[in-house]
Write a structure and sequence with these properties.
By secondary structure, the protein is mainly beta. It folds into three domains: about 30-325, 5 Propeller (Tachylectin-2, Chain A), CATH 2.115.10.20; about 330-410, Immunoglobulin-like (Sandwich), CATH 2.60.40.2340; about 420-470 and about 545-695, 5 Propeller (Tachylectin-2, Chain A), CATH 2.115.10. The protein has six helices and 47 strands. A five-stranded mixed beta sheet has the order 20-3-2-1-21. Strand 14 (about 225-230) and strand 15 (about 240) form a beta hairpin. It is globular, with a radius of gyration of 29 Å. The two termini are about 40 Å apart. Keywords: Carbohydrate metabolism, Glycosidase, Hydrolase, Polysaccharide degradation, Xylan degradation. Belongs to the glycosyl hydrolase 43 family. InterPro entries: Glyco_hydro_43, Glyco_hydro_beta-prop_sf, Glycosyl_Hydrlase_43_Enz.
């Protein structure tokens, strides 16, 4: 889930098993109501739309669609739940009245809203301790209300969690009055946790009717805290916990479950807020008992917090689009399979769209395959000639004047690997005559990936995914998380090629061995580096680099975060000579990502400065006369850094490769995903891409600063 500033975007639409009916009356799209955070201005109702339930685009440039100060007593509005009424044309929305910057987590009211067009809303506030003084004068939390229609009473039931005094949070219900401006009577407890529950706190209830029963998904704190399910034959009583097991597919804290049925099929989506990770997870089910994570199929250009999704008609979608969409955030996707999809850039201010394509795309006849939301049209259609430059496209939003955009197409070789990858280590294999890149698998919240893959190439431009070579959860006994920053070396031992793969796992360094560069790799069974060098108290034991001295044939391991350690590897290559461990004399620009090369009698030591989450992440270097000798740090020692003009940021954690038999070198590094990485905040630090540019030296042996490019390098002959 990625927040876009409105400058650049790309979302790729995929067709799934559930179809859409655009006849106008049946639901064929989706409205997502959400808020965005705890800071001032973030506690407000936002809308996003989707035509398939998987790919969502924020409306109104991801700004609030309702002024929180106009509808709340606190100035903040959270946890919006939206419901279509039984008449099919009235909409009900409820939300928490809370402004965290001033109130913390204590509040007293909820907000009830009503609309007939999804645009204009009537609202009222229900303050529980003021309205029901006799029963709930000591209430200090009123959270996450939701609404459901009760067929038995023909009324709308509002249910929510409350906390009284020192009691745990409990889920209550009450019926709304006829005009949906208040509650008819004092709330009553809806759900009673099992007696054996060690912690009875329950919040964020979410009820759906399925197979003749009411299913109450809720966040429970007992046992393994997470989304639990209770079921009843009746709406207002009798809920029994199905299992003490979590219904969500996470191990981290979650809250704010929202479940909805996909249009025109029998599949359900259960989504929830990973509030400690800053993420949102989507799962899919047909039976509401077992759920499968489908995060890889989901895209959003915003970061939602606790929201709900409601199916809408094509007519309603068009009204929302025409009201809240504009040319600064055009709801258009480009879906050509020849595109580098993550790197498409829409610049509203310049009225340009930049389309990077893969090698071999025909510029003379290229069709971006624009896909538009209902209410938006464009021309021209079909393949166009981009070989002579940009092509003018006209886009039209219903109810607004059309605008022209210049659309350009470029064959960009950067990034060289598809998707999110980082910390690339590159190898030329004498055994196979091919090049290989071993990256960190990126795109996981808080660097939480646990698998390593490898990619091969004959020419440094066209890369083949050779698959997973190590799965920490299956292949490694001593660590199962944080698979980061690997490196590899090819050694000929007793006439046979061996490959020694050093990798970070759980902030330790391990080693695995294979007979081929693509594996299979077998872990040594224990961590190679699991403690800090003598004298070091800070930093992490991460980012290994392996270097074989061409003069002696000896191999060395370098590692560290906040310090650069070095040690000679023993002949078995799976252990170090601890007596040789030393700290290299780097300066205070050193952060991590050591990498060593040898050229014309000089040993070059490279490292990354700053933080991988920083746009200013860069590479510096020093030189030495031996693999563990004293470092000489040049005054001007930058290898590569950001280029704001090209919107290339966070160029760091590199490796390098020499073309066999030539004094021809290339730098392999990662950058923020472009263009959206710079808008993602800290998440940009785990949404990175691998790039290659030429590495050159001047006559005195100094490294010339590398200019990062979009075009990358030409394929080797």
């Amino acid at each position: 889930m990625i927040l876009i500033s409105g400058l650049c975007f790309f979302v790729f639409s995929v067709l799934f098993g559930c179809s859409s009916d655009k006849a106008g009356n049946d639901t064929s799209a989706y409205l997502f109501a959400y808020f965005t955070g705890n800071a001032p201005g973030e506690e407000a109702i936002h809308f996003a739309v989707s035509e398939d339930g998987y790919h969502y685009r924020a409306l109104n440039n991801n700004q609030a669609v309702i002024d929180s100060k106009q509808i709340s007593t606190s100035g903040g509005v959270r946890d919006p739940h939206i419901l279509r009424g039984e008449d099919g044309k009235t909409f009900y929305m409820v939300a928490t009245d809370l402004f965290v910057p001033e109130q913390g987590w204590n509040n007293y009211a909820m907000i009830l809203l009503k609309s007939t067009d999804l645009i204009h809303w009537e609202s009222s506030v229900v303050n529980i301790p003021e309205t029901f003084k006799n029963e709930f004068s000591d209430v200090n939390r009123v959270w996450a209300p939701q609404t459901i229609y009760d067929e038995a009473t023909k009324k709308y039931m509002v249910y929510f969690s409350m906390k009284q005094g020192d009691d745990p949070d409990k889920i209550y219900y009450a019926y709304a009055n006829a005009d949906f401006s208040g509650l008819e009577s004092a709330p009553e407890q809806l759900y009673f946790p099992p007696e054996e529950s060690n912690t009875k706190a329950c919040i964020d209830g979410d009820i759906v009717f399925f197979n003749g029963k009411y299913h109450l998904f809720h966040k429970a704190e007992d046992g393994d805290p997470g989304i639990k399910l209770a079921v009843s034959d009746q709406l207002t009583e009798g809920y029994q916990l199905v299992s003490d097991k979590r219904m969500d597919c996470e191990t981290s804290p979650v809250e704010g479950s929202g479940i909805f049925k996909l249009n025109n099929c029998n599949d359900w989506i259960l989504m929830y807020d990973l509030y400690t990770k800053g993420g949102y997870q989507f799962t899919r089910s047909t039976d509401l008992e077992s759920f499968t994570v489908i995060d890889q199929d989901i895209s959003m250009n915003f970061h939602p917090r606790h929201g709900t999704v409601m199916p809408i008609t094509d007519k309603e979608l068009k009204l929302l689009v025409s009201t809240y969409s504009n040319y600064d955030d055009l709801l258009v996707d480009a879906s050509s399979p020849l595109l580098k999809k993550n790197n498409v850039c829409f610049k509203a201010q310049d009225k340009t769209i930049y389309l990077p394509v893969k090698t071999g795309a025909d510029m003379n006849h290229f069709d971006p395959e624009f896909k538009t939301f209902s209410g938006i049209s464009y021309s021209p259609k079909g393949a166009q000639d981009f070989s002579k430059g940009s092509v003018k496209y006209t886009f039209k939003i219903d109810g607004k004047e059309s605008q022209n955009f210049e659309v350009s197409v470029s064959e960009d070789h950067n990034p060289v690997l598809e998707g999110y990858k980082a910390d690339p280590d590159i190898l030329y294999s004498e055994k196979t005559g091919k090049y290989y890149i071993y990256p960190t698998s990126d795109g996981f919240n808080n660097w939480s990936g646990y698998k390593f893959s490898v990619f091969s190439s004959d020419n440094l431009v066209d890369w083949t995914d050779e698959g997973v070579i190590i799965d920490l959860k299956k292949d490694v006994s001593w660590a199962n998380r944080n698979a980061w920053a690997p490196c590899i070396v090819e050694k000929k031992i007793d006439g046979q090629y061996k490959y020694f793969y050093y990798f970070t796992a759980a902030q330790k360094i391990g080693v695995a061995v294979a007979d081929n560069p693509t594996g299979p790799f077998v872990d040594s069974g224990k961590a190679l580096i699991d403690k800090k060098p003598k004298g070091i108290t800070n930093g992490q034991e991460i980012d290994p680099d392996v270097f074989t001295d061409p003069k002696t044939g000896k191999s060395y391991l370098y590692w560290g975060n906040g310090y650069m350690a070095a040690a000679e590897l023993n002949d078995d290559m799976v252990s170090i000579n601890e007596k040789t461990t030393k700290l290299m004399n780097v300066d205070n620009t050193y952060r991590e990502g050591s990498y060593v090369i040898y050229r014309n009698g000089i040993y070059y030591f490279m490292w990354s400065e700053d933080d991988t989450r920083s746009p200013n992440y860069k590479v510096r270097y020093a030189t030495s006369d031996s693999p563990v000798g004293k470092l000489t740090i040049p005054e001007n020692n930058i290898v590569i850094r950001q280029d704001k003009d090209q919107e290339i940021y966070a160029t760091g954690h590199n490796s390098a490769i020499q073309i066999p038999g030539k004094d021809e070198w290339y730098l392999v590094y990662h950058r923020f995903t472009r263009p959206k990485g710079i808008t993602m905040g800290r998440a940009g630090g785990f949404h990175r891409e691998v790039c290659i540019d030429k590495l050159e030296f001047d006559a005195g042996g100094s490294i010339k600063e590398v200019k990062p490019t979009l075009s990358g390098i030409d394929a080797l002959n």
